[in-house]
Protein: DUF2768 family protein
Amino acid sequence: MNDTGSIVLFTILTFSLALIMIMKKDTIPPQLRRVLALITIVLVSCSFFMIVFSLLGTGL
Structure:
């Protein structure tokens, strides 16, 4: 996983999705809100682990 551009782009997109979910939580229907929140949590945690993994791969 040497392509840091893809990791950076994925991280920006997932944190943007999380920010949108937080800002628009009142306008999303309750059943859809739960599913989107779970998907967002999974994506944000994946991006966090990819950041940590890429930092460990570089020796930091």
The chain has a mean pLDDT of 88. The radius of gyration is 14 Å.
